[in-house]
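Today's session is about reading a structure prediction critically. Students often jump straight to the picture, but the first step is always the sequence itself: look for stretches that repeat, for charged clusters, for runs of hydrophobic residues. Only then move on to the predicted structure, which in these notes is written as discrete structure tokens rather than atom positions. Here is the chain we will use throughout the hour.
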Amino acid sequence: MIWENRLDAAWHIRQANFPPIIGLDYPVDTAVISLTGTACALDCAHCGGHYLEHMIPIEQAPEQIVDAPSLLISGGCDAQGRVPVWEKHLRLLDSLRPRRRLNWHVGLIGQRELEVIVPYVDVVSFDFVGDDETIGEVYGLERSVADYEVTYKLLRQHVRVVPHLTIGLGGGELGHERKALDLLAELGCDALVFLVFIPTPGTRYADRQPPAVAEVIHLLAEARLLFPRTPLYLGCMRPRGPYRKALDPLAVRAGLNRIVSPAREAVALAQKLGLAIERGTECCVLASWRGDRSTAEQLTPMHNGARMKLNCGLCQP
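Below is the predicted structure for this chain, in token form.
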């Protein structure tokens, strides 16, 4: 009963603050580029470089992404948790940038590196972690939440940035998430993406289980209540199959504004609840939908030069 009450409260918050529209993204038109190929210095417990194998090395990108209207620029991290950008990358990006929008993974980047890439950035998707223990256990970094705060603040000063929060990042166990939400509420965010831990073969967490759907939904509903006017999204990095079929409809009920590659059950429920559907084919952080703006914002005309808020999500279907 408490769970149902929390979902009802989250849904009413969504109804009060957003138009009856939901964005559904199927990001087949965003090419995913790795600056480092399959190399990564961290060998993180949840990834182990596995996801780099499915990205296009930047050296091959000019020949492979002729028709892509947008790019996700990603790659492995160095020992400090940064995605390295070298001069040769910038030369290639000079040829790839025209007429395309670029979403970046940068890691714990510094001022100097950020200034170099700003001309190539439309938005940064920034993984946010809420406690030091999770940072050390998952990434093997001798870094702290304070370092993540510093980088996040720096990014917000120069570019559009959308924080990403992985639920169950610590091997399927919840731990850092509520602390991260509280910090983001304090620091501010224009949109927030939720991902869900996927047990991935060949990693240190391969034998773990994803967090229980009920735990995930509790957190999503809490986030809707904590961020009543902030667009919230369910990104594409989450378990498939029965798990997604169970999770996605409940995410609709929890008042999320958009879902990447949703289960059919979620689409059906959105329609049943009277939500108009607007579909996208690129990274969800690169989409701007009417449904992402609060009702109050829609009643206020945007001035010349004002830009709509970006949304968020890791964008491989």
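Discussion point for the tutorial: The first strand starts at residue 21 and ends at 25.
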